[in-house]
Amino acid sequence: MSDAPLPARYYPPGGDAHGHPVRLAWDDGSLLILRDDGPGLRVPQHALTVEARGFNHEQWALSWPQDDSAHLLMVADRDIAPLKRVAPGLFQVGEQHRRAGRRRLGAGLALLVLLPLVLAGLLLLFLDPVVDRVVDHIPPEVEQQIGAVVLARTRAEGPLIEDGPAHAALQAIATRLARPGEKLDFYLAQRPTINAFAAPGGVVVVHSALLKEARSAEEVAGVLAHEIAHVELRHSMHQLARAAGLRLIVAALFGDYGTLGGWAAQLGELKFSRDAEREADLRALDRLAETGIDPQGLLAFFETLSRQEGADGLRPPALFSTHPATAERIEALRAVLARRPQSAAQAIGIDWQNVRTALAAP
Amino acid sequence: MAMDVVDYEIFGHEMQYVEVELDPGEAAIGEAGVMMYMQDGIQMDTIFGDGSAQQGGFFGKLMGAGKRLLTGESLFTTVYHNEGNGKRRVAFAAPYPGKIVPVDLTTVGGTLICQKDSFLAAAKGVSLGIAFQKKLGVGLFGGEGFIMQKLEGDGMAFIHAGGTLMEKTLAPGETLRVDTGCVVAFQPSVDFDIQYAGKIKTALFGGEGLFFATLTGPGKIWLQSLPLSRLADRIVMASRAAGGGGKEGGSLLSGFGLGAVLGDDE
Questions:
Q1: Which one of B133, B169, B189 has the shortest CB-CB distance to A54?
Q2: Is the distance from CB of B20 to CB of B82 less than 8 angstroms?
Q3: How high does pLDDT run on average in chain A?
Q4: Residue A319 confidence (pLDDT) above 70
Q5: pLDDT above 90 coverage of chain A, percent
Q6: Are B126 and B29 in contact (CB under 8 A)?
Q7: Residues A38-88: pLDDT tens digits?
Q8: Which of A150, A200, A244, B165 is the most exposed place for a label (fewest CB within 10 A)?
Q9: In the beta sheet, which residues pair with residue B150?
């Protein structure tokens, strides 16, 4: 071997724990062990056993037997290269072991990372049926309590309009839409934003700006039918239960509820919300047909809404929105209406101009 | 790379500190926050990374700092330079009850694998690296986690661990079974593995857990008698805030009141 002798530690047979520093060289098929503190040794290749040992198998143990004990040499992996070059056959088995160890580590780590992901995926898959079951078991009293809380908060945020022509008009439309025995309460809130929402327990809150922007009672009826559908389908309860479930899964995955996890959960909730809106739109058409109200009102309202959005120029991208794009909703409703037979419509008969003037007055 | 040769003296019994003597121009590195006192003439310099000469450039420094983050230490190390004319002393104190072990890295072949967090101080030039545990089982159940610390160089290093420290040299093939968490340091020629405790009954009620750590020679090993986590568990258990009664010898029984009755001898 042309290289300089490589450093090693030699442990003679008989349990010498400390070992001796030695240098190794290769000469004509034998290993030469050069000792500073004693006579050198010569070991033929066929007598040698080599295995990977030590922390992380980063050491090589070269041993050869004597009587019922053995000589041992320990060489660090970073020093072994010259010996490996001259006698590669010695290291084959050890190298195989090291490779197998690396493969096991890779497979183990992959499993450690994938297992929680797979579990979370399964949970997500079964989230909807579980949420449905949970919501089915929530008693109506609990729902009404939540509704009362939402209503109290709405009152705290701003005034409600509890009399006058607008209030009367809203109640009249609601009465026409409601089926006998349905638990529905409609409230008119003095707010500058076009909005209406359904809380658990049949509480529906309509913002005054919505009535002001609507061109006819039929448009408002369309919106109310949509909100009633939310109540009927218990969407808000589903949404609450789902949000709780999603946050639980995300918290289990990301440990503490991280920012990224929070976003993921929110995106999941928004998607659910958009699906619920589509479902409510379709249900609203059913109810309008049932009560003999012209469904074109709902479409007309959406058109008003889309003009408003165009004017404001402020719209979140579809993925981040609670509602589907208005244009998409109009499109979907038109398609459904085209397939359905036209039912006879009776006008609601409210002087809408009167309502708008009443709301415009300070 | 020539290391600085440092003279040192260790003071105290169960809560120790080490006083390092620096010749003019010599330097030592210390874990951030462990310096106890230093004499006039010693300049303190905080550096990013571990201060070993091998890391060149910004990227090298960043890598060094990243390693320190992984081993649970602060991003910065402090270098103590003797800028004076005579010998000057600086002292480093152990952060919790235990022993400080001086290790001359030349006598262990230049490399020492140790528990993360156990590094206290060293001669300047000793590099602090990480040794990633490549056996999954050992990483999960060996009590030392996946990240261990690797001290490399040919200078003096001071490591610290809890309770009493035991130094032992294992003969080739000699195996010692150790409670997980008690392994402090070993030479790289030592094989670190785990072994199933063998009996479910022992694992559940023997109080030693499901696995032992096993250390197989040849090589030197250092063990601690009281891992900090065990000490911390006992303190929390005994504290009033955690509902501990302040009495030793409680088992599951004390939770049901029986232990309290048996243990009450006031």
A1: B189
A2: no
A3: 84
A4: no
A5: 15
A6: yes
A7: 788 899 999 999 999 988 888 999 999 988 888 999 999 888 988 888 888
A8: A244
A9: B113, B129
Weakest mean pLDDT among A102-111, B132-141, B178-187, B237-246:
B237-246
Task: List pLDDT tens digits, range A144-159.
Answer: 888 898 899 889 988 9
Burial code (b: 16+ CB inside 10 Å, e: under 16) for A176-203 equals: bbbeeeeebebbbbebeebebebbbbbb
CATH superfamily of B7-228: Mitochondrial biogenesis AIM24 (3.60.160.10)
What mean pLDDT, rounded, does chain B reach? Answer: 81
Q: Do A56 and B174 touch (CB under 8 A)?
A: no
* Two tokens, residue A39: 């006579």
Q: Where are the beta strands (DSSP E) in chain B?
A: 7-11, 17-22, 27-31, 35-38, 42-48, 76-82, 88-93, 98-104, 111-114, 119-123, 127-132, 147-152, 156-162, 165-170, 175-179, 183-186, 191-196, 211-216, 219-224
Cα atoms in the 13 Å half-sphere on the side-chain side of A125: 6
DSSP H helical ranges for B130-214: 136-141, 200-205
Distance from the A107 Cα atom to the nearest Cα atom in chain B, whole angstroms = 10
The CA distance from A25 to A23, in Å, is 7
pLDDT in tens, B137-185: 888 888 888 888 889 988 899 999 999 999 999 999 899 999 888 999 9
Q: Do A54 and B133 touch (CB under 8 A)?
A: no
Neighbouring C-beta atoms of residue A228, cutoff 10 Å? 24
Strand bridging mode B111-114 / B219-224: unpaired
How many CB atoms are located within 10 Å of the residue B40 CB? 8
A334: tokens are: 């038109």
Confidence of residue B263 (pLDDT cuts 50, 70, 90): very low
Chain B residues with beta carbon closer than 8 angstroms to that of A98: none
Residues 6-45 of chain A whose Cβ lies under 8 A from any Cβ of chain B? 9, 11, 15-19
Question: Residue B227 phi/psi, 5° resolution?
Answer: -60, 145
Per-residue tokens: A192: 């500058």
**Interval A20-43: pLDDT, tens:** 889 999 888 899 999 887 788 899
Q: Which CATH architecture has domain A6-93?
A: Roll (2.30)
Listed by start position, the domains of chain A span: 6-93, 140-360
Angle (nearest 5°) at CA B48 between B43 and B51: 65
| Chain A partners within 8 Å of B134 (Cβ) | 56-57, 101-102, 105
CB of A330 closer than 8 Å to CB of A302: yes
